[in-house]
Design a protein that fits this description.
Strand order of the largest sheet of chain B: 2-3-1-4
Strand content of chain A: 25-35%
Radius of gyration of chain B: 31 Å
Shape of chain B: elongated
Distance between the termini of chain A: 16 Å
Number of helices of chain A: 8
Largest sheet of chain B: 4 strands, antiparallel
Number of strands of chain B: 4
Number of helices of chain B: 9
Helix content of chain A: 25-40%
Distance between the termini of chain B: 30 Å
Number of strands of chain A: 10
Order of helices and strands of chain A: EEEHEEHEHHHEHEHEEH
Structural class of chain A: alpha/beta
Largest sheet of chain A: 6 strands, mixed
Helix content of chain B: over 70%
Shape of chain A: globular
Strand content of chain B: 5-15%
Largest interface: A-B, 28 and 23 residues
Strand order of the largest sheet of chain A: 6-7-8-3-9-10
Oligomer: heterodimer
Number of domains of chain B: 2
């Protein structure tokens, strides 16, 4: 069903994964999929399809009821609770609602992500301006989030996700709260980051984006992967 | 590492300041708890002091039969000394006793008693006795009364019993009050910190998403609790000193009561308050954040 670039190293591997919540909801049913290093993957599906559960399983926020998930070289079933933070340091997360701390400046919001993993002040001073440059926000370093447009706020979120050099960026509907015109700008930026070797998993509802960027698309429906392909557009239109 | 510690302590202070109303409430309750604990301790120490005074200076007087020969009295005294609870036993002869009375009355009034010496002395031989343990007062007196030649024992049992009962009461009531207030303090502190946590849940969610360890998330809240505890300890100890000085000053001026001087034990009380305060604060903080991280605090995607 899906197209895999064989020969590349797998970053994410779902093997017969199911997730049933304690209230009986079956969020994922026997999911098998692979995401390779350096891929850019859109995750699409209606609300309640299981997309959030899919992300939660990757971040170890939830554990699968059945099956095994491998991220990098680590089997997540073997990752202890105390080791989860170290796994998450290899991932960067971008959220629909930006999740910026309003009382902090742009610089402080980005630096915060380094502070909390114990980076030194020297490293923070060196790295934050560099990352703000990557997302074109050097000029806004001293602004507070409320002084920025939605697109700019999401770029701050992206900078924060990138600051600890993750191998994987998980973007949960990153364009959901911004103007459609600016959405393309954000995905462009994600594409740029992807070109530098970072794997991107982006959950979205915007078909126009998916069509425009023509990347691999995984469609989840009712807890199962119903489509996994690079020519999702043609299949979806038909 | 030092940078991290500085960062975490700064975060703790920032939390107290940004959540100052609840922090003040916590400090208020904890100070009340510490004050009551301190008051119970000081009260108990004062009663012990008073009991020692009763045991020491207000020793019991044992009167012998009026016509008992001196030798028989001294023999009875030996038997009294053999009893377990006797700390000190001093013989007061009838001649000494009348002289003491005459001394007390002064030169002018003592002339009234000048004929009451020798065989006309109405006073009996006596023993001035002090006990080791006042709570065994009644038993010891009963044992003394059984000794041949003993006529009567002047009765301090009321004072002894009252002091013993008061000591027991203060210890028991103090224990329960302190226990109850400790639980209330713990509850208030953990709730104060929970409020801080909810106001910072966005930060916690971001911290968790970028890979902060639970330890790193937890420390600022524990620091906040410890700071609340330390402030409460310092304020409580100062207030206790002021209130105690004021109260004992008033009591000394209207009664003969000689209270314990707080100066000698002030540093011990301050240390105890600071330790207890910081322990309670740390515990309150750790309980709240521990509960939070187990439930809501772990959510990232659907925060």
């Amino acid at each position: 069903m899906g197209i895999r670039k064989y020969g590349e190293m797998e970053l994410i591997d779902f093997q017969n994964v199911s997730k049933i919540y304690s209230n009986g909801t079956e969020a994922l049913k026997n999911v098998n999929l692979h995401v390779d290093n350096g891929e850019f993957v859109f995750i699409v599906g209606s609300s309640g399809a299981g997309k959030s559960t899919f992300l939660k399983l990757i971040t170890c926020e939830e554990r699968p009821s059945e099956g095994e998930i491998v991220v990098g070289e680590q089997k997540l079933s073997q990752v202890k609770r105390g080791d989860v933070p170290y796994l998450r340091r290899k991932m960067g997360m971008v959220f629909q609602d930006f999740r910026l701390i309003q009382k902090m400046t742009v610089y402080e919001n980005v630096a915060f992500a380094m502070h909390v993993i114990g980076a030194s002040s020297r490293d923070i001073r060196r790295r934050v301006p560099y990352i703000l440059g990557l997302v074109n926000l050097q000029e806004k370093a001293d602004c507070h989030p409320r002084e920025l447009s939605g697109g700019e706020q999401q770029r701050v979120g992206l900078a924060r996700a990138l600051i600890n050099s993750p191998r994987l960026i998980i973007a949960d509907e990153p364009t959901g709260n911004i103007d459609p015109a600016l959405s393309f700008e954000i995905v462009d930026l994600l594409s740029e980051i992807n070109k530098r070797g970072t794997t991107i998993l982006m959950v979205t509802h915007e078909h126009s984006l998916v069509r425009h960027f023509a990347r691999r698309v995984i469609e989840i429906h009712g807890g199962t992967v119903v489509a996994d392909s690079c020519n999702w557009e043609a299949r979806h239109d038909s | 590492m030092i940078h991290n510690v500085r960062y975490l302590i700064r975060e703790g202070i920032r939390s107290i300041w940004s959540n100052r109303t609840m922090s003040l409430a916590s400090i208020g309750v904890l100070v009340s708890c510490l004050l009551l604990t301190g008051a119970a301790i000081l009260f108990s120490m004062n009663i012990s002091n008073a009991m020692e005074a009763v045991e020491g200076t207000n020793s019991v007087k044992i009167y012998m039969d009026k016509d008992l020969p001196v030798l028989a009295s001294l023999k009875a005294g030996e038997e009294i000394k053999k009893l377990d609870n006797i700390k000190r036993c001093q013989f007061v002869s009838r001649d000494d006793a009348i002289e003491n009375v005459m001394e007390m009355l002064g030169e002018k009034d003592s002339t009234l008693l000048k004929d009451m010496t020798g065989s006309d002395n109405p006073l009996p031989d006596a023993f001035q006795v002090s006990f080791k343990d006042l709570s065994k007062y009644k038993d010891t007196v009963a044992q003394i009364l059984k000794i041949e030649g003993v006529s009567s024992v002047n009765d301090y049992s009321d004072i002894a019993a009252k002091l013993t009962n008061l000591h027991r009461l203060v210890t028991t009531v103090g224990f329960w009050i302190v226990l109850l207030l400790s639980l209330v303090s713990l509850f208030i502190i953990s709730n104060t910190i929970r409020v801080t946590m909810f106001s910072r849940r966005l930060e916690i969610s971001i911290m968790k998403s970028v890979g902060a360890t639970n330890w790193f998330v937890r420390v600022p809240f524990v620091v906040e609790g410890i700071l609340i505890g330390l402030i409460s300890g310092a304020v409580g100890s100062l207030l206790l000193r002021l209130l105690y000085d004021k109260l004992t000053g008033t009591l000394t001026s209207i009664t003969l009561f000689a209270p314990l001087a707080i100066g000698e034990i002030q540093w011990k009380i301050t240390l105890l308050f600071l330790l207890a305060g910081s322990l309670f604060g740390a515990l309150g903080g750790a309980i709240s954040i521990g509960k939070y991280l187990k439930k809501e605090g772990g959510e990232i995607v659907d925060w």
